[in-house]
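The protein record quoted in full:

***
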Amino acid sequence: SEVKRGPVTGADPVVGYPMEYLVVTRVPFATWDAALPGADSSPISACSNTAYLTLKYTGCQYYRALIITSFYTHTVPPNYNGRDCIRDIGFDKGHVAARSYHTGGVNALRADGSVHFVRNSINLNTWRAMATHKGGEVFDDQ
């Protein structure tokens, strides 16, 4: 998917050069871990806090292999309206939506090498299950 796409906030229009989008909130390490003592399956309220630092190179600088420059997660739905969010230290945990310029969804590469269009309206539990490798689920192309 095209992780570089994203608004400054869920309500702001997407305009200008993608490298300038302030789309990733850097949540302080202690705040992230205090809010998520177990699984990191859902964004925490701090992800929408505009007072925290933001990063603007989502989808750029792929050579850095950081979660915000090269990857997306299945913890939020495709083309999620909220800000992407990462843990400030290590940049090793985050909620980064699959995003696309396609209307209504994203193209996603599956493990078998096939590419399928996934609608924004996909059930979140189904979307999350698509990211597992041991569930044995079979998915329709919705």
Summary: Confidence is low (pLDDT under 50) at residues 7-15. The longest helix spans residues 29-35. Residues 18-129 form one domain.
